[in-house]
């Protein structure tokens, strides 16, 4: 007998282990590890993942697997092992780890279908009837006539594929294909029997004599310069037939990618690429930190490293921050590697993501460029993993499994014996410290490609402006430079750091600030629909006209949203053409790209936006970058706030003067003396690094210490407090004496969605027992978690401390 160890899709502590199921005889040959199956579980049927097969079980009466969901594994051996590793290191359930690795389409409601990939004649007899005049058939319908094992055989031969069609409005795209119903001999006969005048039909038949395969109708028409009426005639004669064929919804397909070729590397680039190439060549795992200012040629180094990997017949994963997955960035990879590239990011529909994932699984592509979750791309011969802008916080997932893509990449790199490149102009302190210690290999690109110096930055003290009577959000210097650019017809980027700087609504008489009734944060004012919104729970209400506290009518909107900046700007400089990019103007699909294209085409003088314009912009006419308030992020309750400020400001400054025209940058700030503002204005990463390291050391923060954050939340304040107290006590007792345990304290955001939040922060150098202790805590509170609405979130190496 064969027993399948199955992890069922019931995320709970009691079910976070494999259950034994008997494989029924008719499925013996079929079930493999990494496949999903339907199994009976209690009174119902649930989905599960086969983790491994064994020949015996310690249980006597086993239930049987009901049916397979996949005919080829969706997770390979490496990913199954990786899930085990993830569940240990991030303290998540196995099932969450499995699901994190799959495209959402495999979790959604779907229709299972069998799809014909090869010519109909190639598959075995019973399928001929099934696929008569269609190329897809519902799974259930197919099973009426053919056996599961015969389907699986054809799937293995590559003739059929099982697909999961998501049942949503976003239906897949189909195109009409034409094929010949006749074989060569019959076609010749048909040709001879044609009417002498039927020249057009003759051409078409001759075409199919030469190319006996199906072709998209549109292409056939244009190639033969013929009409659909001609084709229709031949279909009526029974010579040709048409079928609807699914097109991969490749969102980049319609675009032309200008082919690019490897550039001759500079001396600096040659020096950094040598050890990378050596590591690829020798199949040795090594982590490289590629530290180079923006425009120093890092991407070209990535491209040529990937090229080497592809020539060895291996594959590459490139991670870029979600926000940087702009067409510009994608073009660089598609331009070099063409249709060897799949792209995965959150802007794609569920179906599109699934298509891209299938290209990887079916080995149709060798490179994937994507956001965080692309780290799980099911490649089997990985030759390199590249993480661009490695300091970005989007690489850390905030929900379970709370993994960091960097850790996963290193784990996979060890398995595949391949190098990892972490690239950044402003590496995270953790990575730079590791490079200093020799854990990572530091590679440096010091010069910008165009040899332009980094743009000079001027700091404007906004307190001074106020003192001298300027109440506007624009300093006089910035306005002066803006006007100058308008005259010169050069472009400006204005950056508004919105994070932690929402436009709140306040009563001027009593100082009351409108707050979310469910969360401990102020509501954000959205002018375009005149609503106040909570950014945590989505609560919204019409903008208050009367103060709920004192009934005053003097309500004011504070803070500066992009919209407000735009208004003021158009008042001061009515002649300036402004494009605003923020969450509101880019929520529609493709809007982001459209706005950027307009700006690139010179349809505007000023691009005004939030974080989302900080990256990837590379336009030759940008010569001025203005940061409206450089210090807003400094005041967040987060030990990384200086680091994040430094990174962001450095990144933004890099947008100016990337080409021939020289650029300049202005930082407006209320705290000009702060070292992260001062040092980012000098683009002095090294000095910032040593200053910040001293502070981290004195406060026992990373990279000197590791941290783990436990957040407890409950609707009742007393419950949240008492559980956090107990946890803190246990942690103190069980961990080493030199480990620092802080808490219990209220979280910086002390209430979200009506739940009170308390936390306990653990700082440690080495703590071999940590995972065991944390796991036992989770186990201990399991009852409260499942029945009493208690939530305990454990984040090992958190990025957000809120
Ligand atoms: P980064 O990724 O560090 O920002 P890029 O790789 O984008 O830098 O390089 C900046 C610019 O320099 C790009 O326009 C790129 O095409 C160009 N470039 C890079 N390497 C070379 C090279 N070896 N020779 C000529 N131009 C190069
Ligand atoms: Zn009031
Ligand atoms: Zn809320």
Architecture overview:
By secondary structure, the protein is an alpha/beta fold. It folds into 7 domains: 3-108, 3-Layer(aba) Sandwich (GIY-YIG endonuclease), CATH 3.40.1440; 110-167; 174-246, no CATH class; 267-445, Rossmann fold (3-Layer(aba) Sandwich), CATH 3.40.50.300; 457-501 and 560-695, P-loop containing nucleotide triphosphate hydrolases (Rossmann fold, 3-Layer(aba) Sandwich), CATH 3.40.50.300; 506-557, no CATH class; 706-796, Ribosomal protein S10 (Alpha-Beta Plaits, 2-Layer Sandwich). It contains 25 helices and 33 strands. Strands 14-15-13-16-17-12-18 form a 7-stranded parallel beta sheet, with helices on both faces. A 6-stranded parallel beta sheet has the order 19-29-28-20-27-26, with helices on both faces. Strand 28, helix 20 (641-653) and strand 29 form a beta-alpha-beta unit. Helix 1 packs across helix 2, helix 6 packs antiparallel against helix 7 and helix 20 (641-653) packs parallel to helix 21 (675-681). The protein is globular. It starts with a strand and ends in a 6-residue tail after the last strand. The mean pLDDT is 87. Bound molecules: adenosine-5'-diphosphate and zinc ion (2 copies). It catalyses: ATP + H2O = ADP + phosphate + H(+); Couples ATP hydrolysis with the unwinding of duplex DNA by translocating in the 3'-5' direction. Belongs to the helicase family. PriA subfamily. It comes from Niallia nealsonii. Residues 279-445 form the Helicase ATP-binding domain. Its EC number is 5.6.2.4.
């Amino acid at each position: 007998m064969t027993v399948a160890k199955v992890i069922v899709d019931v995320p709970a502590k009691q079910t976070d282990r494999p259950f034994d199921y008997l494989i029924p005889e008719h499925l013996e040959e079929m079930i493999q590890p990494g496949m999903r199956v339907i199994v009976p579980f209690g009174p119902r049927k649930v989905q599960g993942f086969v983790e491994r097969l064994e020949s015996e079980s310690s249980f006597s009466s086993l239930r049987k697997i009901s049916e397979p969901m996949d005919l080829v594994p969706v997770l390979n051996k490496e990913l199954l092992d990786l899930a085990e590793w993830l569940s240990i290191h991030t303290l998540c359930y196995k099932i969450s780890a499995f699901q994190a690795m799959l495209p959402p389409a495999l979790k959604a409601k779907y229709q299972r279908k069998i799809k014909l990939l090869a010519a109909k004649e190639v598959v075995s007899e019973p399928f001929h009837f099934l696929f008569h005049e269609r190329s897809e058939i519902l799974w259930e319908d197919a099973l009426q006539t053919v056996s599961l094992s015969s389907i699986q055989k054809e799937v293995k031969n590559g003739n059929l594929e099982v697909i999961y069609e998501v049942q949503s409005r976003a239906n897949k795209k189909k195109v009409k294909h034409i094929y010949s119903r006749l074989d060569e001999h019959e076609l010749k006969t048909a040709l001879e029997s044609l009417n002498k005048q039927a020249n057009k039909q003759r051409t078409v038949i001759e075409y199919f004599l030469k190319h006996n395969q199906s072709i998209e109708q549109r292409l056939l028409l244009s190639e033969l310069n013929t009409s659909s009426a001609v084709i229709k005639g031949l279909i009526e004669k029974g010579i040709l037939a048409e079928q609807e064929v699914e097109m991969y919804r490749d969102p980049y397909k319609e675009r032309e990618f200008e082919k690019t070729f490897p550039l001759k590397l500079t001396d600096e680039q040659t020096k950094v690429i040598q050890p990378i190439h050596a590591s690829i060549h020798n199949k040795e795992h090594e982590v490289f930190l590629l530290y180079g200012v923006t425009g120093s040629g890092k991407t070209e180094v990535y491209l040529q490293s990937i090229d080497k990997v592809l020539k060895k017949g291996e594959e590459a994963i490139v991670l870029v921050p979600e926000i940087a997955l702009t067409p510009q960035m994608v073009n660089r990879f598609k331009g070099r590697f063409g249709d060897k590239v799949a792209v995965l990011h959150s802007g794609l529909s569920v179906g599109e993501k699934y298509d891209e994932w299938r290209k990887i699984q079916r080995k149709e592509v060798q490179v994937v460029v994507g956001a965080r979750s692309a780290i799980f791309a099911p490649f089997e011969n990985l030759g390199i993993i590249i993480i661009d802008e490695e300091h970005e916080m989007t690489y850390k997932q905030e929900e379970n499994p709370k993994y960091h893509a960097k850790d996963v990449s290193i784990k996979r790199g060890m398995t595949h014996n391949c190098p990892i490149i972490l690239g950044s102009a402003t590496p995270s302190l953790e990575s730079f410290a590791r490079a200093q210690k020799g854990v990572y290999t530091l590679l440096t690109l010091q010069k910008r490609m165009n040899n332009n110096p980094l743009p000079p930055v001027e700091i404007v003290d906004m307190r001074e402006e106020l003192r001298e009577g300027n109440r506007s959000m624009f300093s006089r210097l910035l306005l002066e430079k803006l006007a100058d650019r308008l005259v010169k017809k050069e472009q400006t980027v204005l950056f508004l750091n919105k994070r932690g700087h929402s436009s709140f609504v306040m009563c001027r008489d009593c100082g009351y600030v409108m707050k979310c009734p469910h969360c401990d944060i102020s509501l954000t004012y959205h002018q375009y629909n005149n609503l106040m919104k909570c950014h945590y729970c989505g609560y919204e209400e019409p903008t208050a006209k009367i103060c709920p506290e004192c009934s005053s009518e003097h309500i004011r909107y504070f803070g500066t949203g992009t919209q407000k900046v735009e208004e003021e700007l158009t008042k001061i400089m009515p002649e300036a053409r402004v494009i605003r990019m923020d969450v509101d103007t880019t929520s529609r699909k493709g809007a982001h790209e459209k706005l950027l294209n307009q700006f690139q085409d010179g349809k505007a003088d000023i691009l005004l936006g939030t974080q989302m314009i900080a990256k990837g912009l590379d336009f030759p006419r940008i010569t001025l970058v203005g940061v409206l308030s450089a210090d807003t992020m400094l005041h967040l309750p987060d030990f990384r706030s200086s680091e994040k400020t430094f990174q962001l400001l450095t990144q933004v400054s890099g947008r100016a003067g990337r080409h021939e025209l020289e650029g300049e940058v202005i930082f407006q700030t209320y705290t000009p003396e702060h070292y992260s503002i001062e040092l980012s204005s000098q683009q002095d990463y090294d000095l910032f690094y040593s200053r910040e390291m001293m502070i981290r050391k004195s406060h026992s923060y990373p990279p000197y210490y590791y941290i783990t954050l436990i957040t407890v939340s409950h609707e009742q304040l007393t419950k949240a407090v008492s559980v956090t107290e107990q946890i803190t006590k246990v942690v103190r007792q069980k961990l080493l004496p030199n480990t620092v345990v802080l808490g219990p304290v209220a979280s910086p955001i002390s209430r979200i969605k009506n739940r009170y939040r308390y936390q306990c922060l653990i700082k440690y150098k080495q703590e071999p027992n940590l995972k065991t202790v944390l796991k036992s805590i989770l186990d201990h509170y399991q009852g409260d978690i499942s029945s009493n609405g208690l939530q305990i979130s454990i984040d090992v190496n958190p990025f957000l401390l809120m």
